[in-house]
Amino acid sequence: MKISNIELGDRPLFLAPMEDVTDASFRYICKMYGADMMYTEFVSSDALIRDVQKSILKMETYPYEKPIGVQIYGHIPEAMVVAAQMAEKANPDLIDINFGCPVNKIAKRGAGSGMMREPDKMVEITRQVVEAVKLPVTVKTRLGWDEDSKIIVELAERLQDVGIAALTIHGRTRCQMYKGEADWTLIGKIKENPRMKIPIIGNGDINSPESAKMAFERYGVDAIMIGRATFGHPWIFREIKHYLETGELLEPMSVAERVDLAKKHLQKSIDVKGEKVGILEMRRHLSCYFKGLDNFKETRLKLVTSTDVQELFNLLDFVKTNWG
Q1: Nearest 5 degrees, angle CA 9-CA 34-CA 227?
Q2: Which of 96, 109, 271, 278 has its CA 20 to 30 A from that of 131?
Q3: Among residues 30, 101, 175, 288, which one is catalytic?
Q4: Predicted confidence (pLDDT) at residue 129 exceeds the cutoff of 90
Q5: pLDDT at 114 over 80
Q6: pLDDT one-digit tens code per residue, 239-255
Q7: Is 101 known to be catalytic?
Q8: Which CATH number fits domain 255-323: 2.115.10, 1.10.1200, 1.10.3470, 1.10.10?
Q9: Do 3 and 94 form a contact (C-beta atoms < 8 A)?
Q10: Which parts of 26-99 are beta strand (E)?
Q11: What is the pLDDT of residues 93-102, one digit of tens each?
């Protein structure tokens, strides 16, 4: 599979861009386990043009992450064009437009999946961004705003016609948020459409090697994107690849292995963001790495409240000794 001139191999696996999750340290871990394509956390076009430092820093990437895309969102065409040009200067491999985020504060002001209520404006923003930059431009979106407005089949053609290089579709409407099951039937219909020539990436409820295999085989997508299932489980990429290649499931990762991974992730977070912020932003991950362990509540509380680096590493050693 290729996006423009970016070669991604057969049945590639994408890490979904997620706010406050897919920072540089988490991307480092996911790349280590086989993610073929990754994105920055999404970046507000309004914040970029206001020169908000936090948003500018989100666009920073590293050579070992390649190929990688910067994802931007917004609802004002002029701001999106400027943001795309700023993103291009950060030297990613592509620019992705987020028309899929369902969060109220974004969608209700017309950005993210809020754009599903204004498809003409969505297409026009996309056209202007494509024409404003030299990098490939891709789009991530949903099936529609609600059950009565699943417009994605026609919309996919229109987005292709204005020049996008690939399309990622989450198999839910905006009103579903993340509830219920993702509906892949329309994703499959788009892939079957003879007018569609660009790669189609499917997203939604890929949480196991078996679900990944079914997505490729039943719906014919060119790639799959994995989001929430990576929380506390970034090695899912390795598990899926092994299953696709051999038909066999890998043995579950042991507690001792998860401790070693958590240490590596924690150290990378500190290296990238400094001790204070690095520890704070690791808490969401440390709370997930050890899901399912018996009698773990007290230790988990310590892991997500400690502000001392050495104490955290000692706690992780304690986990290995007592649960590993």
Answers
A1: 100
A2: 109
A3: 101
A4: yes
A5: yes
A6: 999 999 999 999 999 99
A7: yes
A8: 1.10.1200
A9: yes
A10: 38-39, 43-44, 68-73, 94-99
A11: 999 999 988 8
